[in-house]
Each structure stands twice: as C-alpha cells, then as structure tokens.
Amino acid sequence: MLGPATFRAMRLPTATSSLSVRAFSSTARASVARMSIVGRLAATPEEATIANGRSLVRYALGTSYGKPENRKTSWFKIAAFSEGSQKDFLLSLPKGTLLYVDADARMESFTDKEGNQRTSLNLIQSKLDVLSRPRSIVEDEEGLVQDPTEALG
C-alpha cells in the first residue's frame, strides 16, 4: 500500500522549482519558434532543388478569418525537406486540400534588388496531417458542374 510519503515524492514540481531541471530530456535547450497552421493548399505542391543539391517541396497554405461579409485570407509559404514516399505523398496533394501543419518558424532579414531592407517569415514543415481533401467536381456534356459523390447517395 502506498503511504503519504510516497505521494509527496511523486508530486509535480512547484512554480518555485528550478527551471533548469529537465527530467524528460537529456539534450540541451533550444530556442525554437513554432507555428501550427490549419489551412487549404493554394496550389499543388512543387519540388525545387536548392544550392547544395538537396531538394525540397514548397507549398502555400491559405487561412481565412473574419466575418463572412468581411473575410480576409492570410497566405503562408512552407518548405518541407521530405524524402521518398513522404515527398511523393506531399506532391500528390491537390489544390484545396485542408492541412494541419506544424512548422519551425524563423524571421530573416535581407536586402531586395532595389536595396530595400525586407523581413521574411520562413516556415519549415515538421509535421503534416491531411484533414480533408477537396470534393471532386466534374462537368457533364452540357457543361453543368456536378459532384460525383452525390450519385452515391
């Protein structure tokens, strides 16, 4: 049987406990900014090769906010260093797919071609979940748009 002393030993650290103790990890702390985004693909993702010969997949997510009569959209450009079947899966996602993305976020400053100082938000995908795919829409012979899933009942 467990006694009161056992429960005292098992209690969670208090607010006055040292923040330098990290029992869950043996790695050093890292300063990382993260973003979680739920949005729809603006277009089919594209593969690109960067300077060191590595390839990455680039895509943009759109998120909407505001009241329906005054709705606005924010666009986020994301890069993924996926390989193999994960890369093939990402490249196969159609425009309009609803995604949940966890990404590492960095702000970088640069000078554009006109000499103006600019800042850019760089998002590197760390996790991706497909929440839903867009409905397929097909035109019949008269040009009427129909959803083929409606025929299934």
Structure overview:
The protein has 153 residues and is mainly beta. The chain has 2 helices and 8 strands, in the order H-E-E-E-E-H-E-E-E-E. The protein has a domain of 103 residues: Beta Barrel (OB fold (Dihydrolipoamide Acetyltransferase, E2P)), CATH 2.40.50.140. It has a 5-stranded mixed barrel. A two-stranded antiparallel ribbon has the order 7-8. A hairpin with a 5-residue loop joins strand 7 and strand 8. It is globular.
What's the number of extended β-strand segments?
8
CATH domain fold name of the domain at 32-134: OB fold (Dihydrolipoamide Acetyltransferase, E2P)
Helix content: under 10%
The number of helical elements comes to 2
Please name the fourth-level CATH homologous superfamily of the domain at 32-134: Nucleic acid-binding proteins
Mean pLDDT: 80
How is the main sheet built?
5 strands, mixed, barrel
Evaluate the radius of gyration: 23 Å
Shape: globular
Low-confidence stretches: 146-153
Secondary structural class: mainly beta
Chain-wise SSE layout:
Blueprint: H1 4-10, E1 33-41, E2 46-49, E3 55-65, E4 72-80, H2 84-91, E5 98-111, E6 117-132, E7 138-139, E8 145-146
Question: Concise description?
Answer:
This protein has 153 residues and is mainly beta. 10% of the residues lie in helices and 44% in strands.
Describe the structure using short key phrases.
disordered C terminus; five-stranded mixed beta barrel; two-stranded antiparallel sheet; 153 residues; OB fold (Dihydrolipoamide Acetyltransferase, E2P); mainly beta; 2 helices
